[in-house]
Amino acid sequence: MALLELPYEIDLDEVARSIGRTFYDRGAAYARRNKVLSLSWDEERLELSGKVLGSTLYATELTFVRAGAGIEFDFGECSCPIGFDCKHVAAVAVAAA
């Protein structure tokens, strides 16, 4: 996968606090094993999208809010059975960071 250069820094500690350490650690392992197959950034919507290979291919979107000159993680949605703030969300955040 080609690297994505975001115009902002993602605070991974903030993502971990928001989704929980267990999901974050599992997602970070997915990112390290190159399970994130694509990434894209929508500046207008402040959304980071990715495709993550799990037991199938999952579509994941992370939404951010403006915070001063940067952004803060708001929430993530996923096509997996959990549906939101899951390990796939963490994998996309880690891969993009």
Keywords:
97 residues; four-stranded antiparallel sheet
Q: Count the beta strands.
A: 4
Mean model confidence by pLDDT: 95
Radius of gyration: 12 Å
How far apart are the termini?
14 Å
Largest sheet: 4 strands, antiparallel
Order of helices and strands: HHEEEEH
Q: Count every helix, treating DSSP H or I runs of 4 or more residues as helices.
A: 3
The structure class reads alpha+beta
**Shape assignment:** globular
* Strand arrangement, major sheet: 1-2-3-4
* Share of helix, binned: 25-40%
Question: How much β-strand is present in the residues?
Answer: 35-45%
Given as residue ranges, the uncertain stretches (5+ residues, pLDDT < 50) are none
Structure notes:
This protein is an alpha+beta fold and 97 residues long. It has helices at 12-19, 21-32, 87-96, and strands spanning 36-42, 47-53, 57-67, 70-78. Strands 1-2-3-4 form a 4-stranded antiparallel sheet. The two termini are 14 Å apart.
